[in-house]
Amino acid sequence: MTLQQMEYIVALDKYRHFVLAAEACGVTQPTLSAMIQKLEEELDVKIFNRDRKNITPTRIGEKIIRQAQIVLNETQCIKEVVADETDSMNGNLRIGILPTIAPYLVPDFIHHFRKTYPHVSLFIDEKENKSLLQELHYGNLDIILTTPPEDLNGLLEIPVYTEKFVAYFSEACDQAKSCIANGTLPPEQMWILKEGHCVPNGGMNFCKNKDIGNHIYEAGSIETLIKIVDRNGGYTIIPELHIASLTEKQKAHVLPLQANPPAQRHVSILIKEDFIRERMVNAVIDTLKSIIPASMLEKRLSSHSVKLRHTQKQ
To answer: For the whole model, what pTM was predicted?
Structure first.
C-alpha cells in the first residue's frame, strides 16, 4: 500500500470518474485503474462498485477512503511543519467558517493574509457548525472559526472575539421600535434565519423555537433579512459587525437588545489538540486582529501570542 494508491482512491471517490480522477492525479486512466485494482487485491476487499454509469465506494471502501484521506492530510502536515520553521511560511492552510461570520471577515482576511503571507496557499470554506466540526475531525480543515460547541471533544479552543446582537427594525414599524426600546421582542413581527444559523444564546434561541418569529420565509443570510424588513415591516436580529454594512439611513433603525443574559456570540478558533503549526495559528490570529475592532477582541490576544501546549519546550 502506497501514498500514491491512497491519493488515487481519494481522487476517484471525489470525481466518481476514472478519466477525471486520473487527470487530477496527473497519470493516465489505465495507470490509475491498475493501481487501484492492485490495492484492492492487496487488501482482499472491493473498494469501489463499478458499473457503466456509476462508480461508488463500497461500505468498507468508504472507511478505507476516509482513513486514506487522514493519512494524506497527516503526510502533508509533515511538509507544512517544516515550512512553519523556515523564515518564510508556505504550504497549505484550510480554514472553515460559519456563513453568518464569513461576510464580515473573509473579504478583508483574504486581502491581508495573502499580502502578508504570499507563499501560503489559502483555502476557505463556508459550512454550518456541524459540518465544520466534522471536517475538522476528519482532517479536511486545519482551522475553523465558529461559535464553539459545549463539548469540544478533542478540540482546542482559542477565543477570538465577542460580538453583540442588535435589533434592526423597519422605518414603518413604530410598534416594534417601541417594544424593542422597552426590552421586549414581539415575536409575531420578527423575521428569522433558518435553522442552523441561530443566535447562540440560551435566552434568545429564536430559530429553535418554531412558535417564535415569522416563518413565511426563513432566510439564509442577514442581508436578505434586512431587505425583507425594509420591504415588509417588522424587525430582525443582526450581529454587531453588520452595522458597518448599513447605509446611514438604515443605521438609524438599529437598537441595542435589552436581554439577560446578553444577546451575544463568542467566536473562537478551533483546532485539533494535536495541531502543531503554531506559527500558522498566530498568523491567522494576527490577521483577524487587523480586521476586528479592538473592543470586541479577546483581551489576552492583544498582548500575547498563542502557545500550543505540545510545542512548548520542557
So the answer is: 0.71
